[in-house]
Amino acid sequence: MLGQLAASLTDGLLLGFVYGLAAMGLTLIWGVMSVINLAHGPIIALGMFGTYLLFSHLGLNPYLAVVLVALLGLPVGFLIYGAAVHRVINAPHLSSLLATFAVNMIIIGVGTAIFSTSPQNIDFSMGTLEMGPLTVPGTRLVAAFGSLLFTAGLYLFLYFSRPGKAIRAVANNRRAAELMGIPSSLVLALSFGLGTLLAAAAGGLIATFFPFTILSGGSYELKSFVICVLGGLGHPLGALLGGLILGGLEGLVPTFMPVSWVPVVEFGLFVLVLLVRPRGLMGARK
Amino acid sequence: MKFWRQPGFWLPLVIIFAWGLTILLLHQDTARETAFTLLMFVALASSLNILLGYTGYVSFGHIVFFGVGGYFGFYLLSQHDWSLLPAALAGGIVSALIAGLLGLAILRLRGAYFALATIGINEAARAFVDNFSPFGGATGMFVNFSAYQPYGGPGPALWTTFTYLWLITLAVLVVSYLVKHSRFGLGLLAIREDEDAAMVMGVKAPRAKTIAFMLSAFAPGMVGTLYFFKNGNVEPGDAFQLHMSIEMLVIVMLGGMGTVSGPLVGSVTYVGLRGYLLTSPLFKSLHLAVAGLILLLIILFVPTGAVGWVRTRLPWLRRALE
User: Fold this and answer.
1) Looking at this predicted complex, what is its ipTM?
2) What is the extent of the structural domain holding A85?
3) Is residue A281 domain-resident?
4) pLDDT of residue A134
5) Pseudo-torsion of CA B279, B281, B283, B284, nearest 10°?
């Protein structure tokens, strides 16, 4: 029993790192420009399909493909920001919510037309790692490690590079940053690009061990919302913590009750945190 | 100002009344089905508009009230042999009560936080009903064939359902107009513009918001019961479809949020557009993308929607287009 518990917890936690990475993109965009990116899920799905295409048609190593797909995510993010978000950045929330949702519909629509909704998977194995009672698939281990690398990369970028510092300045106070000579539109576009990059990378990593369709992004988007709220909207590191909590729950809950109750627990927790502590577990500051 | 002398009050009512009457007189099944979908959209979108357009709160989970009310009404219909109208009323009352309870909790959240909470509630409700056995779990419930007997068999029962929906839609439009032009509605509009300022001016914002939320949940509960009675069964996937919440949002935006006739214009346009996109060979596989593109263009360039646009361009029409 204890061994089984430990096994499912490890499974869940490893998954949690990747969930955290996916949510990080969402929370970064929220933190910088107060926009909830409802096109987040389709971008995750695009990351999955990008990795899949590079792997199955060009024969690339999936992890190399994930990096390429992530880099491609940056210009895609610029494009979405320029086309859909920039005009409504100062409008009420409703406008940006609906604008990004429109992008969501466009991506899903075009994606369904091209890829259909049949499931795909990346047939790639890294063997398994055995530690006592635990058996961990290599792909999950690498995915968790990859998520940590991306997180570290994001932190180094935000804290030690000029554009990263500009992003933090704009997130803090856009007008003051503009007065200091920071081109805020460019910085917003860059943050949106970074958010897209993280989402695409997370999608690619998930694709290495789960089958997926063009619609799979939706469930990861919902998980990302839960995680963002758990960790505090706008706190990238909180997203990692939230991801671990959610992953751990997903691992543990099925050992106590039927699997179909997992979403009830997740969203119950989500609403509860929103009500009791809307700034999230990490969001201590006002 | 007497509201029954205003053309803006009568115009949408006369359109819906004449249209429903035509369908009843024509007595064609296909026409009735089309009209049923359209009327349903009008009623749902108008209800959402009370919250979204007047109060300025974005709800991504409004379909929850359609699902919850529909489920409850259908449960009474199929398991306890209630007749349609009381069951629909009960469905509406239950969803309004649930909205009141939810509202006490989540209406404290503002803006994007409220929107996120509504997404969570939609998912939680679906997952809950999936697992709640008195409501039939994942397979849902079916209506017994004998339940159609009091209406003279399944065929006439569908016409009765349609008539009820028609009357409910008319009532929703009346309520929508009255709310907009009442003191209470002005309070809601003030909350939409600036909640803190509204509270300073004496609007009891928490109470007003909760009442608006309950009002906007009542009709979806009734419509849900009618819809599932028409279908003859109810299942979680059918009752809690996030995309229908979105369709309602698109309709309200298309027609013009905060207007009485907007949801009507939006529904007709949206259903027509969707029908065209689904059947045209060029757009058949791309209909979702095209709908998304249209939505994006509306939000970016005509944020007030069709009715709002006409109202700013043609001021003399303002009295007729509320």
Assistant:
1) 0.83
2) 2-276
3) no
4) 75
5) 60
